[in-house]
Design brief:
This protein has 495 residues and is of the alpha/beta class. The chain is 42% helix and 12% strand. Helix 1 crosses helix 11, helix 4 crosses helix 11 and helix 9 crosses helix 12. Pfam families: CTU2 (PF10288).
Length: 495
Amino acid sequence: MTEMDICQRCRTNETTVISRKEKFCTSCFTKFIVLKQRKQMMSSDYYRDIFKILYKDKIRSAEEAHIQNLNSRILVPLSLGSSSLVLLDILNKTLDEQLVQHRGITGFRVDVLVCYSKTRDDIEEINSKIAKLKSERYASNKDRITFHVVSLDSFFENCNNELRKIILHNQTFSSMAIDIKNDQDHSYGIDELLKACPNRSTQIDLLTFITRHVVKKFAYQHEFKAILWGHSMTKLADEIISLVVKGRGEQIATSLDTKSFDFIYGGDKFKNLYPLKDVLLAEVDAYCELHGLSQYLVNYETKDTLLVKKKDITGKMKNKNIKLVRNMTINELARKYFDDIEGDYSNVIATVLRTGDKLAEPETQADATTTAASADDKCSLCLGKLHSNASNWLRSIAVIEGFPIANAEEQELYDRWSQSEIGIEMAEYMKLKDDIWTHGEDILLCYGCIITMNGIKMKNVTWPKFNDKELNDTLNEYVLSDAEGEEGEPVSAEL
């Protein structure tokens, strides 16, 4: 082993990873990643009180300290991708260390939430992976790490049966909603929603919100102190760029906020933390490969960009589908850009994230006319804060009225268009819009959701009516039993 092959930190072991122009052995690289995560976990007094072990002191008695340790519960949304799995793995290591150093006592407990789509995901594969994690990888903490599984269709099924149809006006960009009931014979679900979307970007946009809402609703109902999202630095950077492109730039500050309680879900219930925000996705993938986590991944393949010894991919590339740029979502395009520069220009990713962290929420524009956005207004679709009336602004910059038919030729073309598939669909939309405009109520949408709605078929969606009843309607979930691959009885969240 030459000097060129030696780890630059310990100066002893062989180099296995080269990251940020530095050579690491497996042990030093693991320590590097673990310390990055723990730095975020100890970033404030609030988080320190969650993760550290509390003992009797001037503030609390021994019994109070014990109760606080038991009540320090965190929620980890697990997608079974590399980032969330590495996050969970390091939390397991932390629990193991606390058990050894503090004689069987730990400072926190972990609940893992896996969200799945009934039609898009293989629930048997998901259950199998979770069972293996529970029985093999995290057996030492089986009493301190609990796995829950929730269907994303609970977004529609567990909303106190209070649904409404939201429609966007094709000329004024204003929106209205009318209450509807979920038909028991044919319940509205995610499949119907996604079929109305014009492209994958819109589908992923809506699925991302649905997943986020289900996770945060679960955290609210179970009274967790924090949600630990497994977003790497690369993921957060591509999310920042994507939000800007999708017209949701005003949400960047709120989405990255780890200091404030989540104002939408109770206001004082939990905070959101990104423990891997200082770790590149390529570093996360390298950790997965070095520690044998790849066998637990679902719908994700790690990259060996930073590994000295590359993976054997013989035969795999032949069957691998190459995704065309035109078929990529906005997030995937941003991710592709960051993947391309991650090796040589990782500082660009860090700069994007640092810039996002410095952004503040826009001030609410009180001079927006008629239905002006107030400080407490939220978007009826994504629940984001409204800082201005987007429909008023769009009307001020757009030509919103068509020109009348002027001659016989134009009338003939119009008649032919009216009989086409698009014309018939437009007639159905106009009938639905007129009905809702007669019997519905005004609602507000943010600019990003107006753009999303404008592309959806017939410019309408069926959506839960967000209120306290919906927030407290218990999500149906189940936990895996100790028997591998078996499902336990559905359990309800105690409020």
